[in-house]
Fold:
Amino acid sequence: MTATAAPPYAAPTVAAGLPGPQRRRRRLPFSPWHLLLVPLALVFAVPLIWLLLSSVMSNAEINRFPPALWPSHIDLGGYRYVLGNAMFPRWFANSLIVSVATVVGNLVLGTLGGYAFARMRFTGSKLLLGLMMATMAIPFQLTMIPTFLVMKQLGLIDTLGALIVPSLVTPFAVFLLRQFFLSLPRELEEAAWIDGCSRLRVLWQIVLPLSRPALSTVAVLTFLSTWNDLTWPLIAINHEPQYTLQLGLTTFQGQHHTQWAAVMAGNVITVLPVLLAFLGAQKAFIRSITSSGLKG
Amino acid sequence: MSHLPAPITVARPRPAHRRSKRRSEAATAWTFVAPSVVIILGLSAVPVVWSLLLSFQTNDLVTPSRWSGLDNYRALAQDPHFSEAVRNTLLYVVLYVPLSMALGLMLALALNRRIRLVGLYRTLIFVPFVVSATAQGVLFSFILDPEFGAANAVLHHLGISPQGFLTDPSQALLVLVAITLWSGTGFCLVVYLAALQDVPPSLIEAALLDGANRRQVLRYVTLPTLTPVSVFLVLWQTINALQVFDLVYVTTKGGPLGSTTVIVYFIWEQAFKNGAAGYGAAAAYVLAVVLGLTAGILRIVRRRERRSLEGATA
Structure:
């Protein structure tokens, strides 16, 4: 379809020369590319739309064969069950606590560490930085068993602490912020430094206000990976009251295999915070993800 | 006049002053980095060594461990479940990495033009990337449920017989690849799109002036400038695909009949379910070596690419 439609537009753009190949296209009602892109975009969107629709269906509608593909009316039974009978509110709070603590930890400790490595001279700084960077290449599977043993020794297994402590600061945050601080002009800080400001004050009043893009990248990626993680909570937590949403959701699905409306309502609750955060700050999300990728 | 001596007295103690200042600066720096050093080195550098020691031990995470030399590695080499996990993982990687990149590149080329709704398309295709593997797994377990799922309902309307999907040993791994393509293609798309927007327009204009057609521009100008990004994506996607776990745990738990047991699932099962932490650690070391080799090879490729690019522009 599109293959036959494309050449007439491709040819004039070459012939028309450089300044306005795109301007020509605007005269058409729509570009033939939409014929390809609409179905493709739908393939990606339909599962999430279906998630939302099935979460407001009644179990009777879902459990007949073939199941209804559109809810006849909005049935909030699934949400009522999930919020009333199950521990979803508790799990939500746990996920929120862990994510917020991890984000704050990475911002504060990553800033302090990154700033010291970028601007301050102390013996061993190069060696330490090298070691910390090297740990970025270590896969999680290699560290998970000993980390479990350490958390057990600390008595943190089965508490939210076990989820927070190991990711309170990541080498990624330290390194990314260090690189960013290095890119800032030194002179700004030196002026304040000579005026007798302490390092901490320079950092707080001069450096941080300039560092919002880097800080938001760290916050976005830390939140995303903490909120979405399943592996580590699965290892570190055994009792349902300490579950995170991801762990709770998969356990809940195993226990309520035929109550799909409730399972999907729980799924919506699990996905929604990340989805809203993404849609609200889409530019920052995509910039964070591509910038960390392209430089890497 | 009475102020005159003052600068001299200030100037003299300066070296001492500076030294103490430097010392106090070092102290401040250490307090700044201490928490990061303790957590990062304590919970990743130390465990790397610890894991290595564990892999030479028999350890069930509860009773004291004992040394067993290379037994774990020898057992791994003969364990049919492990070789099956390796095969499954490799098949998953070999299918997922090229497909996600090819799809991402095609979508990026389609979206890299001034048509309406480009932002909307990009958002719709990228959104699944932020959905957790758990949520994806639960959602697709439902959609692909052989009895109640929408997928079979749609097939039913089309007159196609119902499929087993994740419950069919011959389909399960392919279905997992498809689910990951749904969520992972958007990442390749945005990375490629960002790279395409960085292709210098002057290069394309020059090629067009020289009489190249669209396809030639794509083949000889656009795609070569994307090479560094493609190398990065191969590395990134391969490393992530080799470590797939959450989705498998949520959807199939390695089944049916072990057809979706991947390496990390094998490690987790051994260490935390079967109480064979030493054995799990040995498997983790095998995986880490594979990951390290992948990264190493790609780093070499990348360096060579960069050199040849520099050579071309020089």
